[in-house]
Amino acid sequence: MDPGAVQGVARLVGDNVERVVVGKRHEVLLVLVALLCRGHVLIEDVPGVGKTVLAKAVARSIGCTFKRIQFTPDLLPSDVTGVNVFNQQSGRFEYRPGPVVAQLVLADEINRATPKTQAALLEAMEEGQVTVDGVTHQLPDPFVVLATENPIEYEGTFPLPEAQLDRFLIRMSMGYPGRAGELEMLERQHRTHPLDSLQQSARLEDLVRAQAAIKEVHVASAVREYIVTLVEVTRKHDDVYLGASPRGSLALYNATRAWAALHGRDFVTPDDVKMLAEATLAHRIIVNPAARIKNVDSRVVIGDVLAMVPVPGAQPVSPAGRGWGSRKPGP
User: Fewer Cβ atoms within 10 A, N terminus or C terminus of the chain?
Assistant: First the structure.
């Protein structure tokens, strides 16, 4: 499958999702990047902007198995991973899968669960498996977690630990749809919610082939050095207590390949790196207390790093790069 075919699959899924999620082209593209990279997404925003609807629309568009976990303070790790139940007929314990056993898992309001329950996702997100009572069970392939959290509701929430945040390929926010988008949303939901009639638009097999195809996207040595330098500078920044991990370098590297394929290209440009640096690196950075007092956050740090690191020589953009993904994001 060439990048043009990857772009075709993305167009089918993206256009279908946009029948439900209005005016969020860039955000839909970021989720598609994560799907192509088999990565996980953390959607952080205020209530009511469509985080859960986006996850449901993506699942229906690709026809994968979908489970939702509503994270609450009383949720136990076994409520996520599953339990072993004794079968009196067979005289043996049998594994009863938890909701994490699905191809796309929506971890809704993940920061409302205790750290112990949050940790139940660590093995699943990194290794695609869960271990219950010493027995390891493989998760379906592909396996993607879309987690949501509301940043303004601090009461009754537990901050995500660094190890958890580092396992998310991308952190993004939805934002408000804009006046025109909100009016269109009212019109679309006049009688029924468009999600109720949303149909599958692409086969899961096509998505799996597209996931394999992005591995063939070329990344020049100068661009690879640019990625590594950006990550290294985050570790040396004056306002940073803990910089991005090597997993961050891999996340940015893989995300840029998917982004290039979405735009019909078989090579990565420095502009691709700059476009995805914040989404893939900002949540991996811990700003020191002195900088937080000055209202410096990790997004500001990424902006400083991008301004500090010289950009390698620009590469020409092929005509194939002008496609579905190249359209300007909505308001």
Answer: C
Q: Which two tokens stand for residue 269?
A: 């440009």
Q: Is 48 left (phi over 0), alpha (psi -120 to 50) or beta?
A: left
Q: What percentage of the chain exceeds 70 in pLDDT? A: 92
pTM of full prediction above 0.90: no
When pLDDT is cut at 50, 70 and 90, the band that residue 177 belongs to is: confident
Q: What is the pLDDT of residue 2?
A: 65
